[in-house]
TrEMBL record, chain A:
Pathway: Lipid metabolism; fatty acid biosynthesis. GO terms for molecular function: 3-oxoacyl-[acyl-carrier-protein] reductase (NADPH) activity; NAD binding. InterPro entries: 3oxo_ACP_reduc (IPR011284), KR_dom (IPR057326), NAD(P)-bd_dom_sf (IPR036291), Sc_DH/Rdtase_CS (IPR020904), SDR (IPR050259), SDR_fam (IPR002347). Belongs to the short-chain dehydrogenases/reductases (SDR) family. This is 3-oxoacyl-[acyl-carrier-protein] reductase. The keyword NADP applies. Homotetramer. Residues 4-184 form the Ketoreductase domain. SUPFAM superfamilies: NAD(P)-binding Rossmann-fold domains (SSF51735). GO terms for biological process: fatty acid biosynthetic process. Its EC number is 1.1.1.100. Keywords: Fatty acid biosynthesis, Fatty acid metabolism, Lipid biosynthesis, Lipid metabolism, NADP, Oxidoreductase. It comes from Alicyclobacillus ferrooxydans. Catalyzes the NADPH-dependent reduction of beta-ketoacyl-ACP substrates to beta-hydroxyacyl-ACP products, the first reductive step in the elongation cycle of fatty acid biosynthesis.
From TrEMBL, chain B:
Residues 2-77 form the Carrier domain. Keywords: Cytoplasm, Fatty acid biosynthesis, Fatty acid metabolism, Lipid biosynthesis, Lipid metabolism, Phosphopantetheine, Phosphoprotein. Gene3D superfamilies: ACP-like (1.10.1200.10). The gene is acpP. This is Acyl carrier protein. The modification O-(pantetheine 4'-phosphoryl)serine is found at residue 37. Carrier of the growing fatty acid chain in fatty acid biosynthesis.
Length: 245, 77
């Protein structure tokens, strides 16, 4: 297999770090993006290098179009092409709608949905020229189920699925596939802060009877980025232990 | 041949992979040069870069032929 170049947003921690490591093991040169935690991003890159892979670390806030464009330029400057973009960066600002501030809504929309749009727009030109590319958007099962206390997050993730399908159609003729992954309950910093009683109930509702690991998600990304997934586009792949069927 | 036409020609030949002889002012992008809508968008973006100008979506929609591009660029330079 020829060497692929991939950008993983929010690769300093959690699911993004696992995805970056997995793609690194697959032989990708990885652009490890973070917004604030530089040390953690450097650690991700170091782990990739220890596995024998190549990585660069790039700060960038995906909610800013200029930062997203810079990420793509860095990938091209460092490695010469760009094959895979994983829109993983995401935040939560959970609260009931009645108490939700405009700032909570906007922050989540700007990072989780507009951020993916920014990166897709920036990556599309080089991928169209190459006549190949893989875009993988990390959505969530709550985009399908809804979730009390997460109206902003759920709306952004549902929007991300719509974005996935539209872009899949726009770029299909250029051999660029676009898919979404909908993780269920995955053990990361994002879920570590949640109420223990609530998470216990959550896990009880998972048919496979356990929370997922970041690696469970990373394996699916690795598959969608591989030649084996060449004929898959516009799909939402659930990695949720059967939560949504 | 005007300087604009020759620069436009070379971008079109490069982007659409068509024979230079086919890139005449009356040639339409879609029917004569086989461009699809993405090709046209990419072409417009490359022309914007090459000539350092912005072409609005409304204006872009009215551009159908190679000659339209040259006229537009000469009028807006
Ligand atoms: N955990 C779950 O159960 C679960 C379930 C479904 C979907 N997901 C989705 O999976 C993705 C990763 O989640 P996670 O649990 O791994 O989250 P996490 O541990 O909280 O990590 C979030 C990552 O996103 C980065 N980030 C945040 N805002 C950013 C911005 N504006 N620009 C660039 N990077 C930014 C963070 O960078 P810094 O380290 O620099 O802050 C960090 O690397 C998210 O999209 C999340 O919505 C998670």
């Amino acid at each position: 297999m020829t060497e692929q170049v991939s950008i993983v947003t929010g690769a300093s921690r959690g699911i993004g770090r696992s995805i970056a490591l997995e793609l690194g093991r697959d032989g990708n040169c990885v652009v490890v993006n973070y917004v604030g935690r530089e040390e953690e991003a450097r650690a991700t890159a170091r782990l990739i290098e220890e596995q024998g892979g190549r990585a660069i670390v790039e700060q960038g806030d995906v909610s800013l179009a200029s930062d997203a464009e810079r990420l793509v330029e860095s990938a091209l400057a460092a490695f010469g092409h760009l094959d895979v973009v994983v829109n993983n960066a995401g935040i939560t600002r959970d609260t009931l709608v009645l108490r939700m501030k405009d700032e909570d809504w906007d922050a989540v929309m700007n990072t989780n949905l507009k951020g993916a749009f920014h990166l897709i727009r920036a990556a599309a030109r080089p991928m169209m020229k190459q006549r190949s590319g893989r875009i993988i958007n990390i959505a969530s099962v709550v985009a399908i189920m809804g979730n009390a206390g997460q109206a902003n997050y759920v709306s952004a993730k549902a929007g991300l699925i719509g974005l996935t399908k539209s872009v899949a159609r726009e770029f299909a003729s250029r051999n660029i596939t676009v898919n979404a992954i909908a993780p269920g309950f995955i053990e990361t910093d994002m879920t570590a802060g949640l109420n223990a009683e609530w998470t216990g109930k959550m896990v009880e509702q998972i048919p496979l009877g356990r929370p997922g690991s970041p690696e469970d998600v990373a394996h699916a990304v690795s598959f969608l980025a591989s030649p084996k997934a060449a004929y898959i586009t516009g799909q939402v792949l659930h990695i949720d232990g059967g939560m949504v069927m | 041949m005007s300087d604009t036409l020759s620069r436009v020609k070379s971008i079109i030949v490069d982007r659409l992979g068509v024979d230079e002889a086919k890139v005449v002012p009356t040639a339409t992008f879609k029917d004569d040069l086989g461009a699809d809508s993405l090709d046209v968008v990419e072409l417009i973006m490359e022309l914007e870069d090459e000539f350092d100008m912005e072409i609005s979506d409304e204006d872009a929609e009215r551009i159908k032929t190679v000659g339209d591009v040259v006229t537009y660029i000469d009028a807006h330079q």
